[in-house]
Backbone:
């Protein structure tokens, strides 16, 4: 088996080891701020239809947000945190934004970080592909996003995991966003010693099976919480566009450091059924896709891939042009 | 191998022993290290509900999808 796929198959356990402890610690730190449950958003999907917006490269490559803004959509718009900035710049104000990542200081940037006054020593935002605007002008883009989030925040509900950094919770609250809390499901809640069970016992919040990443978690929120029976996807690619340099991929520094010149072997190249292009994924994205396909087969909704790119194809996934889906939400 | 084989002659060529970095044990150790740096931002728990709201008052779990 290819190295990339071999690594991907072990990521369920690796993710637990990577995020469970810090997520539990953040749940404790967030405790004074935890108020409303995500269950207060139950069955609020407008018309039973939702559009989930991820921050994959097709979002920009296919101008999905400009097309959404021009066409309009009567359903509920659910955005992953990494897509919030692009949404607001395009004039799309999401109904719900989902955030989950426990990273202590990166994620707050997706909401505009008022404390950022110079380019960060951490090159993550200059290197990442999810919101290219941050890579072009890190400080200016952040300052503009602070203003946009402060302006539109009171209209936006945030589905925030208890694992999220307290800095994110504080930033959302300061922008007037309404916070609705949930626990990330970290293990089998049916076991007596389950950490998920312990989290629920501590704060009474439901546990959501997040599928490894915030984009999948947003899709779960859309159908399992908001009650959408038809869920469209844009910017959920689980892969990198053909011309993406390896250096601009999410895990490049880690793969390069660990594999040396063999780092290329960790990437999995596949043909996008939408375009015939050769996209590629790293072990994490490959795992995300496998998990999504597994979950989609059992979801109580129709999942419609409107990305017009990416690598999310398979049983349980219907493919439509974005405008075709948007009409169905009217 | 040097510990077990001794010749009574001298070779003109240098024998390159297999690098330890290519051994299966090292590959597994490497992959374990790699996995600790990769992974997602939220767990996935296979064969479990999308949403678990806690045990019902009758002791039955309340979940959004049945166990597979």
Residues:
């Amino acid at each position: 088996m290819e190295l990339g796929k071999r690594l991907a198959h072990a990521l369920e356990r690796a993710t637990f080891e990577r995020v469970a402890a810090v997520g539990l610690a953040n749940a404790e730190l967030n405790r004074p701020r935890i108020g409303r449950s995500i269950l207060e958003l139950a069955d609020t999907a407008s018309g039973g239809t939702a559009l989930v917006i991820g921050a994959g490269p097709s979002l920009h490559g296919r101008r999905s947000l400009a097309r959404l803004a021009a066409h309009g959509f009567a359903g509920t718009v659910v955005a992953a945190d990494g897509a919030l900035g692009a949404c607001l710049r395009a004039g799309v104000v999401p109904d719900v934004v989902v955030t989950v990542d426990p990273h202590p200081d990166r994620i707050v940037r997706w909401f505009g970080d008022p404390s950022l006054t110079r380019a960060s020593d951490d090159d993550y935002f200059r290197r990442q592909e999810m919101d290219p605007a941050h890579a072009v002008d890190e400080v200016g883009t952040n300052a503009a996003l602070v203003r946009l989030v402060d302006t539109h925040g009171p209209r936006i509900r945030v589905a925030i995991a208890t694992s999220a950094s307290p800095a994110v919770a504080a930033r959302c609250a300061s922008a007037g966003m309404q916070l609705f809390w949930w626990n990330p499901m970290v293990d089998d809640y049916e076991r007596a010693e389950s950490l998920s069970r312990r989290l629920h016992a501590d704060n009474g919040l439901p546990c959501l099976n997040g599928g490894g990443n915030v984009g999948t978690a947003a899709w779960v929120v859309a159908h399992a919480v908001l009650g959408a029976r038809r869920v469209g996807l844009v910017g959920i690619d689980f892969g990198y566009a053909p011309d993406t340099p390896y250096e601009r991929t999410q895990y490049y520094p880690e793969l390069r450091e660990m594999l040396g010149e063999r780092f290329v072997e960790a990437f999995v190249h596949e043909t996008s059924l939408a375009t015939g292009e050769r996209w590629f994924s790293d072990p994490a994205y490959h795992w995300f896709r496998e998990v999504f396909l597994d979950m989609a087969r059992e979801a109580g909704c129709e999942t419609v891939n409107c990305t017009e790119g990416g690598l999310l194809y398979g049983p349980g996934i219907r493919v439509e042009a974005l405008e075709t889906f948007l009409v169905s939400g009217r | 191998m040097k510990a077990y084989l001794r010749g009574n002659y001298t070779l003109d060529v240098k024998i390159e022993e297999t690098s330890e970095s290519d051994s299966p044990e090292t590959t597994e150790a490497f992959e374990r290290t790699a996995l600790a740096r990769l992974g997602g931002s939220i767990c996935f728990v296979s064969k479990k509900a999308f949403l678990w709201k806690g045990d019902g008052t009758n002791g039955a779990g309340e979940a959004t999808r049945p166990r597979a």
